[in-house]
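the two lines:
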Amino acid sequence: MIEAFEKPDLLLALPEIWLLVMACVVLVVDLFSSDRDHGPAFILSQITLVVGIAITWSTQWGVDATTFNGSYVADSLAAVLKSSILLLAFLGFAYSRDYLRDRGLLRGEFYMLGLFCILGMMVTVSAGNLLTLYLGIELMSLCLYALVAFDRDSPTASEAAMKYFVLGALASGMLLYGMSMLYGVTGTLDLAAITEAAGEIDENRLLYLFGLVFMMVGVSFKFGAVPFHMWVPDVYQGAPTPVTLVIATASKVAAVGLFLRLIGEGLLPLLESWQHMVVILAVLSLLLGNTIALVQTNIKRMLAYSTFNHIGFILMGFVAGTPEGFGAATFYAVTYALTVAAAFGVIMLLAGKGFEADQITDLKGLNERSPLFALVMLLLMISLTGIPGTVGFYAKWMVLKSVVEAGFVWLAVLAVLGAVVGAFYYLRLVRYCYFDKPEGDGPRPDGSRGFQTVLAINGLAILWLGIFPGTLVAVCMAAFL
Amino acid sequence: MLESSWPLLSLLIWLPILGGVAVLLLGEQRASQGRMLALVVSGLTFLFSLLLITGFERGTAAMQFVELRPWVEALNVNYHLGVDGISMPLIILTTFSTVLVVIAGWERIAYKPNLYMACFLIMEGIVVGVFSALDVILFYVFWEAVLVPMFLIIGIWGGKERIYATIKFFLYTFVGSVLMLVALVYLQFQAGSFAILDMYGLGLPLATQVWLFIAFLLAFAIKVPMWPVHTWLPDAHVQAPTGGSVILAAIMLKIGGYGFVRFSLPVVPEASLALDWLMITLSLIAVVYIGLVAMMQQDMKKLVAYSSIAHMGFVTLGFFIIFDIVLRTGGSGALLALGGGMVQMISHGFISAAMFLCVGVLYDRMHTRMIRDYGGVGHRMPLFAGFFVLFAMANAGLPGTSGFVGEFMVILAAFQANFWYAFLAGTTLILGAAYSLWMIKRVVYGEVANEKVSALQDIDGREKIVLAALAVAVLWLGIYPAPLIEIMEPSLQQLLDNVIDHGIG
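prediction for all of em together
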């Protein structure tokens, strides 16, 4: 039965509309601007993102409504995830300017592609319909493929983009196939309706599971969870660092939204079926990530492998299938993304013309050259390790709590032992920053004042949130109540 | 619970931490101002901590100076502080030792002196936090955060093998603590609260208790450290700068001992009873075997480090013989054993700090810690020799010094548990005397060994102040320990009743 046409409430979707309009404005403004540094495009993009956070917060926090016939959801979860994504993009743009200029990559398209990518992520986390969801993912992914290959003369970047594209297309296909199964069983694309139908399981259970498995594969790929992780290290290393930053941070937060909309909340009635799949993915991610990260000498690659460890933790948050668990996973993803964003920021700060500063030994004696950024690096690394005093601890602890309460004590033990292994390679970075003397001149932290200020605030925020985590925890928890 | 009218404990935690940040912000150019500020901050903290003694209500086991306010409301975590007779003396020990370390590091530290001072001040605040936290998450936050400044202290100002030593130290202690975190999360789930006191007497099944006990054991045994998880300690001590060794021995090891009385015994009493044989065995091995190992050391710092392990064996022995005593005699000696363990912790805090400082005094002048490079130091440094001999005697447990009190109480109590425990524990009086005095003989007495020794200058005013303060503490506690025991007794009695009620039933 076709419902009567209903005028959609455009106000609810204002964040996306704002971003879409502004992305076009940025494109046009950049065309007519003669600034070789693309200053107007940069400033407009940053304004777009900041205003976007305000709009998101004011229109979607505390709201629980749908529009466009249920295919767009505006709720607190969307508000939390979108504002984090916008904030992370803001950081990414702020850190990338000097880096891109040094490499001749500073072009207006970077901002335009970036904004469209963010738009895709926002659509994903607000999806109330399988098609909206897929649309968001594809918009995000296509922009990311292009961004990875942004340095088109670099063979490693092209290779990474190719690998990412081929595997990404395959994963999208899997996801779409899974969705089609779901559609076949329920006859609807609407996620709320699918959830309801899944609650009244009947003889079609096998078809549900069939679809679920394919969708799980697609989602795991977007997360980069083991064993669907092959693309991650190459893409992290090959892509220009600002793009790596976006993939490592904002796209992970978007993936949390994807998981929650599609499986976590969408197929919650099938919890028993997907719980063990998630456990297996989490265990594999924890094991593989930690082992291989131990032997990396390239910081970007090391962060890529250590990402698996953190994805393992995020997945553990989903295992319980409770609001607390989902809240913990969201908190983990947001704080992890903030931490890693700053880590890539430091790498870009140290990088100069023709010099990537992505070898671990490039950090030698950072404390002598810049005590402030050595301190920032120390905070980031102990936060990633999960030492209290920094926000990483609360993230880990909240996840552990939800897992223990769900009865998976062994998984918690495995995860904390993984954290100990993680301590080894994170501390190695601290060791180079603090205990070694600089070799020769070494890379110096030189960046514009604005860049350095934002990076320092980002780093110290990890400490601040580690001492006063209350508000952020409350926000992430409230998104599921 | 006794509320405090003003947040004294918070002051003791945050004054040094913020003071440390202030020292750091001075920048490395202004080293003398940094030192001065560090001294003022640590001195003030010590003076404020004395208010804990004057304001402490004796004769009650209740928590005092309690502060309770919400911290992470969404998860029901509270900023919950308070002290009883067990933790209060340890806080005083912490603030006292930090003042000494600041003075001892006065002009000795040339590389980034302000960062050095800041690390110690921040650590002081964190350790006070460990001893006063009454919320498990708050406790864990402080417990783990301690590692970071110590990691930097050993790694930046340590000796040749400092990086190996500090990473070993960090990973070793981290392994133990993360399992404790899982145990705490599980306990919170069972108790429905994060308050430590709510976790007492939960009456969990024995099998669960044993798992929890093992998780706690790993965390605390590594910190104490007990044989066989002690191997990080000699490395860390030898490589650490003098101040680092002092804090490590005087305070960090106590955190482990404190954990046993705050968590293991009261939270999982039945498992403590079931596994007390293990604890007693490990403690006795520490006392006897590590005592023998200490005797064979060529390096003075290593010798003191091993003797620390042996002395901490007494602490754990005292804590875990209580079950045997209660089962055999009905209990009067159990309180003696617990009290002995506690007194031994405080006393070892003073003595080990003094011993490491003495070794530091020699190392600063000669740049070697090898016993064979010394001889006849007493001829050139008579005053120093006096102090060194006094502390070595205390280390050997000479009556009249603090080292005697704790060991004697534990040995006396051990007789009520089992003659052989007492016998083996008693060998420490011989072993301790052997390694301490033999070292003294080779270093202080005899002919002046070489030209370097003959050029030695006696201790200066700064060193005199530090060593004299410790000498007073050691003698005072040795001659008149009654005030300390009076403070501890009600809390220990309550702990004992609690453990006996739930553990033996």
